[in-house]
UniProtKB/TrEMBL annotation:
It catalyses: 5-phospho-beta-D-ribosylamine + glycine + ATP = N(1)-(5-phospho-beta-D-ribosyl)glycinamide + ADP + phosphate + H(+). It comes from the Bacteria. It holds the Pfam family GARS_C. It is an enzyme of class 6 (ligase). The keyword Manganese applies. This is Phosphoribosylamine--glycine ligase. Its EC number is 6.3.4.13. The lineage of its organism: Bacteria, Bacillati, Cyanobacteriota, Cyanophyceae, Oscillatoriophycideae. It comes from Microcystis aeruginosa (strain NIES-843 / IAM M-2473). GO terms for biological process: 'de novo' IMP biosynthetic process; purine nucleobase biosynthetic process. Gene3D superfamilies: 3.40.50.20, ATP-grasp fold, A domain, ATP-grasp fold, B domain, Phosphoribosylglycinamide synthetase, C-terminal domain. Belongs to the GARS family.
Length: 421
């Protein structure tokens, strides 16, 4: 098989790495890829813009590509799947309408209501003053969400009314024309990435992300500063309830609406203190950094699994196989992230980190003249596995300490909820 992976982040490096472990795969092309995929054996970066659908389809045809795997939400929201399907190219990733489950929070809320899925009570606003009136009536804590793509940073959990009002101003002046204001849910967050062919589905191991920039889960939201899997908070009983009461109804409702959804259905959940799962949001793609912790634990070959989704043959996989143990990913970021940060810093120590037993997934990196340089906010994801969380956490931090670039920043408490004292 020849496969194209669309994207340039840590998620895409992890996907390419895992796909190449499938015996059927002879070549992976990353469009456009990053410094890590540039040096991955049997992987080649192709300098085509993710938005250039005509050029991507031309390249796929000329190189006899068997499957295109779309990593980020942005090209999905623009309709890359619709275009490629029109060229009779197999795609793993939902159509543009299906991608609305992430690109429009209000659309997702309507879908959840139709499917009778439990989620936070919310209201949608196109007028800033009406949104502010509602916030003052409801009080804080309260959650404000941009109704559109915001690279994982469009959710503001406001602990005060003033913070929520400021968020409304920031979003409307920042180019958004619609916001969703919803109740604050108590509990612990968990991410469940689910593969679906639009008819049936298979859930991957639950993961728990660390969204805040600061230790102790403080500071601004980011795209994710670290993750571990499998998340113990998602017990077998909770996963059964999620599959029965959330995922199955959503897949059925998408199908009822005539939406061709073949890809990842990413459920961001809040597990209440009583153990009840409620939906915070849905995403239409693999999570980042969740993918970097979940895929290393997957023993079922990934390529035939994703191809089965694209061909609506997922029932060929009655169950997925997993290796025992735990995985932890620590994200190394540029100084200043998620705000202003510099690029072009030389990175050293990656091979030393991998020699120590970790897998280093590149995100914001670029290969120049044989060296790797920083090229983004989240630079690397250092993933380690162990028989338990303590072993995985210790190995991840032993490894990340071997990596150096000017201004390197990483949280030192990833996995604090599962570390045994």
């Amino acid at each position: 098989m020849k496969i194209i992976v669309i994207g340039s982040g840590g998620r895409e490096h992890a996907l390419a790495w895992k796909l190449l472990q499938s015996p059927e795969v002879e070549q992976v092309f990353c469009i456009p890829g990053n410094g890590g995929t540039a040096i991955l054996p049997q992987c080649e970066n192709i300098p085509i813009a993710m938005e250039d659908f005509a050029e991507i389809s031309r390249f796929a045809r000329e190189n006899c590509v068997d499957l295109v795997v779309v990593g980020p939400e942005y090209p999905l929201s623009l309709g890359i799947t619709d275009h490629l399907l029109g060229q009779e190219i197999a795609v793993f990733g939902p159509t543009q309408t299906g991608a609305l489950i992430e690109s429009s929070k209000s659309w997702a809320k309507e879908l959840m209501s139709e499917a009778a899925v439990i989620t936070a009570v919310s209201e949608t606003f196109t007028d800033a003053e009406l949104a502010k009136t509602y916030i003052r009536e409801q009080g804080a804590p309260i959650v404000v969400k941009a109704d559109g793509l915001a690279a994982g940073k469009g959710v503001i959990v406001a602990e005060t009314v003033d913070t929520a009002l400021e968020a409304i101003d920031d979003l409307f002046t920042g180019g958004f024309t619609k916001v969703v204001v919803e109740e604050f849910l108590e509990g612990e967050e968990v991410s469940i990435l689910t593969l679906t062919d639009g008819i049936s589905f298979r859930s991957l191991l639950p993961a728990q992300d660390h969204k805040r920039i600061g230790e102790g889960d403080t500071g601004k939201n980011t795209g994710g500063m670290g993750v571990y899997a499998p998340a113990p908070i998602a017990t077998a009983a909770i996963i059964e309830a999620v599959n029965r009461d959330i995922l199955a109804p959503i897949v059925a409702t998408l199908q009822k609406r005539g939406i061709d959804y073949r890809g990842v259905l990413y459920a961001g959940l809040m597990i209440s203190p009583a153990g009840e799962p409620k939906v915070l949001e849905f995403n239409c793609r693999f999570g980042d950094p969740e993918t970097q912790a979940v895929l290393p634990l997957l023993e079922t070959p990934l390529a035939p699994l994703l191809l089965a989704c694209a061909q609506q043959k997922l029932t060929d996989f009655p169950s997925l196989q997993w290796r025992s143990g735990s995985a932890v990913c620590v994200v190394a970021a540029s100084a200043g992230y998620p705000d202003h940060y510099e690029k072009g810093q030389l990175i050293t120590g990656i091979k030393a980190a991998e020699t120590a037993g970790a897998i280093v997934f590149h995100a914001g990196t670029v290969l120049k003249h044989g060296d790797i340089f920083t090229d983004g906010g989240r630079v690397l994801g250092v993933t380690a596995m162990g028989a338990n969380f303590n072993q995985a956490i210790e190995l991840a931090y032993q490894s990340v300490k071997r990596i150096h670039f000017q201004g390197i920043y990483y949280r030192r408490d990833i996995g604090h909820r599962v570390r045994e004292k």
